[in-house]
Amino acid sequence: MKMELIQPFINAADAVLSQGLQSPILVGNLSMEDESYRRKGVAAMIALSGEVEGRIIFDLDSPTAVRVASQFAGSPVPESDSLVRETVCELANQIIGNAVTTLNDQGFHFRVHPPQMHTVELESRGGEDTEAMVLRFESESGSIFMNVALRYNRKMERKRAASA
User: Fold this and answer.
1) 3-state SS class at 146
2) pLDDT-derived band of residue 124, with 50, 70 and 90 as boundaries?
3) Backbone phi, then psi, for 46, in 5-degree steps?
4) 3-class DSSP state for residue 32?
5) Which of 2, 4, 123, 157 has a CA-to-CA distance to 108 between 20 and 30 Å?
6) Is 50 left (phi over 0), alpha (psi -120 to 50) or beta?
7) Residues 119-157: b if buried by 16+ CB within 10 A, e if exposed
8) Does residue 134 sit in helix, strand or coil?
9) Terminal-to-terminal C-alpha distance of the chain
10) What are phi and psi of 148, to 5 degrees?
């Protein structure tokens, strides 16, 4: 995965999380994922299609998701509350939206699909043109994970080159 694709997601996550949680965010581990993705707790998945295609999973363990939702709500939220899941989806939306704006400004064109709760393990669809990068962001509320698996759409890349 090229850094030109991943860096906007790192920057967006840092900005949205530090502002929303009102605390500094540290980028922790950065690793490549070879196996199927196993969610850690409450996870939202957003798919992209177009010149860049793939998916991003935004994942918080349950206690972290509850602390984050409670902070956003301004009062304690029970773990079973739907507000926890909605908060994770909204954070994913904000982060992806900011990153997509940056990528659009760089000339990439793609569609962002609505977030869905990620409830099953994803099989790796890895290959030489698709890799998944797992990023961990450390906050005062806990660890927040972002799993990014993107690739260039070869057919659209050829079409774009032919029209240039």
Assistant:
1) strand
2) very low
3) -125, 130
4) strand
5) 123
6) left
7) eeebeeebeeeebbbbbbbbbebbbbbbbbbbbbbeebe
8) strand
9) 24
10) -115, 120
Collect all residues with Cβ–Cβ distance below 8 Å to 124 and sequence separation of at least 6.
33, 34, 35, 36, 37, 132
Question: How long a stretch of residues is the chain?
Answer: 164
Using a CB cutoff of 8 Å and minimum separation of 24, what contacts does 98-107 make? 98/8, 98/11, 98/12, 98/15, 98/16, 99/8, 99/9, 99/11, 99/12, 100/8, 100/48, 102/8, 102/11, 102/12, 103/5, 103/8, 103/52, 106/4
d(CA 75, CA 109): 39
The tokens describing 78, both together, are 């029970």
Name the one residue in this structure whose structure tokens are 């939220």: 77
